[in-house]
Amino acid sequence: METSFPIALGFLGSLAAGSLTAVGAVPVLFGRIPSRATRDLLLGFAAGVMLAASFFSLIIPALDAAEGQFDNGALPAAIVCVAILLGMGAVALMNERLPHEHFKTGREGPDAASLRRVWLFIFAITIHNFPEGLAVGVGFGADGFSGGLPLAIGIGLQNAPEGLAVAVSLLGEGYSRRRAWGIAALTGLVEPVGGLLGAGIISISQPLLPWGLAFAAGAMLYVISHEIIPETHRSGHQNRATFGLAVGLVIMLFLDVWLG
Questions:
Q1: CA-based Rg of the chain, rounded to a whole angstrom?
Q2: Which residues in the chain land under pLDDT 50?
Q3: pLDDT digits (tens, 9 = 90+) for 18-47
Q4: Measured on CA atoms in the order 48, 57, 82, 162, is the torsion positive or negative?
Q5: pLDDT of residue 225
Q6: Which helix (H) or strand (E) holds 100?
Q7: Cα gap 129→155, rounded to integer Å
Q8: If 0-12 CB within 10 Å is exposed, 13-18 middle and 19+ buried, where does residue 259 land?
Q9: Any residues with CB less than 8 A from the CB of 5 and at least 6 apart, and which?
């Protein structure tokens, strides 16, 4: 397979997945905003999709790739474990260094008084969406269409409720419906940047394959634990959110086995 082909697939796949952020935010244009309980259910679904994708589409293939390079033993497992921790640490560092706001807990990171509130939201979603695009790109770069398609579908499915959450939060800050939708849609365009980077690195250097897959998984696991699950539990809807997580996990598992 030519190097440029998986890179193009990584870019287009992550672009398609990111575009579903805009689709998810469409209800704000028509005034049909789901209840908080429904939004927490959908975000729980998103967490389940990401959790399954992290293990079945990234960590297990990373172990397989590492074993192919170093045979069986402790070294493949050690490589994957270290790469997962590096991925989590990288997003944690971004989370600490970039000024941003969470929907409920407010401002985090260095002092950003000079930045407009809307850009704080965009920074928050950048931190959130970039590793998702990276994961899609790594999937396509590692194994072409069959490796990236389940991830692209899964990430796209969980982008829809996230787009809605962003748009609803911006409405609460006084933005118009069209502007809230537009900003939510733009946040999804971060993903093809991550997709292009992930597919490019993996396509050019195959020895980096297990590192890239596990790094992307670690980044996604951090987002699940630090961002999505706490958000779904803040309003007392943890039972619905957990049900959504279970449904998202098994659907992503099914898609990965069926399409992979």
A1: 18
A2: 1, 104-105, 111-116
A3: 999 999 999 988 877 778 888 888 888 888
A4: negative
A5: 87
A6: strand 100-102
A7: 10
A8: middle
A9: 144
Backbone angles phi, psi at 223, to 5 degrees: -60, -40
Structure tokens at 50: 């990401």
pLDDT computed for residue 112 by the predictor = 47
Domain boundaries, the chain: 3-259
Rounded-to-integer distance, Cα 31 and Cα 230, Å: 26
Give the DSSP letter of residue 57.
Answer: I
Angle made by CA atoms 127, 153, 58, in degrees to the nearest 5: 65
Identity at 26, one-letter amino acid code: V
Q: For residues 64-99, b (16+ Cβ closer than 10 Å) or e, as one string?
A: ebbbeeeeeeeebeebbeebbeebbebbeebbeebb
What burial class does residue 1 get, using C-beta atoms within 10 Å of its C-beta: 0-12 exposed, 13-18 middle, 19+ buried?
exposed
At 214, the amino acid letter reads A
Q: How far apart are CA 193 and CA 178, in angstroms?
A: 25
- Residue 102: strand, helix, or coil: strand
- C-alpha–C-alpha distance, residues 121 and 115, integer Å: 10
